[in-house]
Amino acid sequence: MSFQKDFLWGGALAANQCEGAYLEDGKGLSIQDVMPKGVAGPVSEQPVPENLKLIGIDFYHRYEEDIRLMAEMGFKVFRMSIAWSRIFPKGDEEQPNEKGLEFYDRVFDTCRLYGIEPMVTLSHYETPLYLAKTYDGWRSRQMITFFDRYCRTVFERYQDKVKYWMTFNEINALWHFPLMGAGIWTPKEQLTEQDKYQAAHHEFVASALAVKRLHDMIPDAKMGCMVLGALSYPMTPKPDDMIAMMEADRKVMFFSDVQTRGYYPSYIKKYWEKNGICIQMESGDEELLKNTVDYVSFSYYMSKCTAADCSLYSKGAGNLTSGVKNPYLPESEWGWQIDPQGLRYTLNYFYDRYQKPLFIAENGLGANDQLVDDGQGGYTVRDDYRIEYLRNHLKEVEKALDDGVDVMGYAAWGCIDVVSASTAQMKKRYGFVYVDRNEDGSGSLTRYKKKSFYWYRDVISSNGASL
Fold first, then answer.
1. Is the pLDDT of residue 317 over 70?
2. Is the full-model pTM beyond 0.90?
3. Active-site residue list
């Protein structure tokens, strides 16, 4: 089966990694503004100059140029995020920041001008810093009220401009990185499982309320959930390893199970019972959870292995989670194992489980690209390695379609080079467009088309036939 005619080809960026202008036009600070080294580094009290995200790639001032480049590649969809603190600078205000709303008006209007459908993530790792410090992020139930006000504001404002929405980016990242994933200011080593499950409950209620608001306010719009798609293979066929795989996958699927099915699964209730976890719920919470998402989206960069005793094996690297290294797979420069067939497996796994349309919200290869003379008076990147990575993954998407999976579309991550979320580096590049910015913050920010730019343009124009 080939790609359907309405397949949504495109790419993805996140506001905190691309926009810059971190205090411009009334924007408040977000948690990303005080995370200069990404998830693994220290958190500062105030922004520091070495945080490359403060300028990003200056999308805030260059969005017209960047969207024009997307249009030249033929994008049908642009998955992006709204910076919550650009709309509500502290997060708990009664009234929004008009200049922030106007910026996204311009972005969406530019997308529409070029026939690109914006797909908007409401919260992509950029909780307002004030909410993190004052309320401890999603540990507080008050966050539901603040998030609801934010959602109602943007749904009302952009009801004629945005059809596709998502609530929380990689919501299951809360488990490993609670500050980035859920705006929780308390250090993660001080958090109990009770704390994290309670925060997840608050996010689930907020997500379900956002689904309800969207369906009430914009009946033809669609809301999706978004999870980190990192399923596991058993390291061996030993039954103990199979059970370990089942348990590892449940930690991933728990988040999408609730948002897609509308209730807490029996396996998690039993886990709570065995471990003395008691989730505080208010009257109406369980009924509200029945407002389920319209589609399921996920990021996919790699697969991983697991075992009953992981200490027996080498550990693999990962983009927020990691497992046991698979001896059958090659690795990227950052040690992420490359597994195109794992994408087909993941698509089938999700669709078998939910029978809802799927959207691949992120997929791509981070590499230390080198800008070279293109022989025609300009510069380019000869990124055949990226082309090979993407081609192999897209071929597996095509096989999943042939398996009967309903795949809405595909967004290549970091379609224009951005600052890395996990490491805050600039040298880990994903884009079809090279941005002249260096690790020390220098650079002209000039955009250069890579070899993959033209390759992806041909893939889209041929609707995948050129693969």
1. no
2. yes
3. 170, 362
